[in-house]
Amino acid sequence: MQKQFEQYLLAKNYSHLTSIDYPSRLDRLCRKEKISYEYLAQHLPEIMPQFERTGKKASYGKRSHSSVINALRRFSEFLNEVNVTAEGAK
Q1: Is 5 in contact with 19 (CB distance < 8 Å)?
Q2: Distance of CA 22 to the CA centre of its chain
Q3: What pTM did the predictor assign?
Q4: What are the tens digits of pLDDT across the range 48-77?
Q5: Would you say 65 and 22 are in contact if contact means Cβ atoms under 8 Å apart?
Q6: CA dist., res. 87 & res. 67, Å (int)
Q7: CA distance linking residue 63 with residue 66, whole number of Å
Q8: CB of 40 closer than 8 Å to CB of 57
């Protein structure tokens, strides 16, 4: 899933560095939280608000110019688009 997310970002014209950075940041977040990428994907609506500006983990979300929360937001978009694409392919 991490590689698919990277390819999605490249397809959306994000820079090569950002396309590598965001999936890596999510990988580090998963290791920190002791969850899998799949768990993150399945529980993103509950997890993401914790890292938003008023969430209890906001300081982590704001790291590196808010790249963690931005990675989570792009991951949410990726999941929504992949889900629509997967449903449309049925």
Answers
A1: no
A2: 7
A3: 0.86
A4: 999 999 999 988 888 788 899 999 999 999
A5: no
A6: 30
A7: 5
A8: no
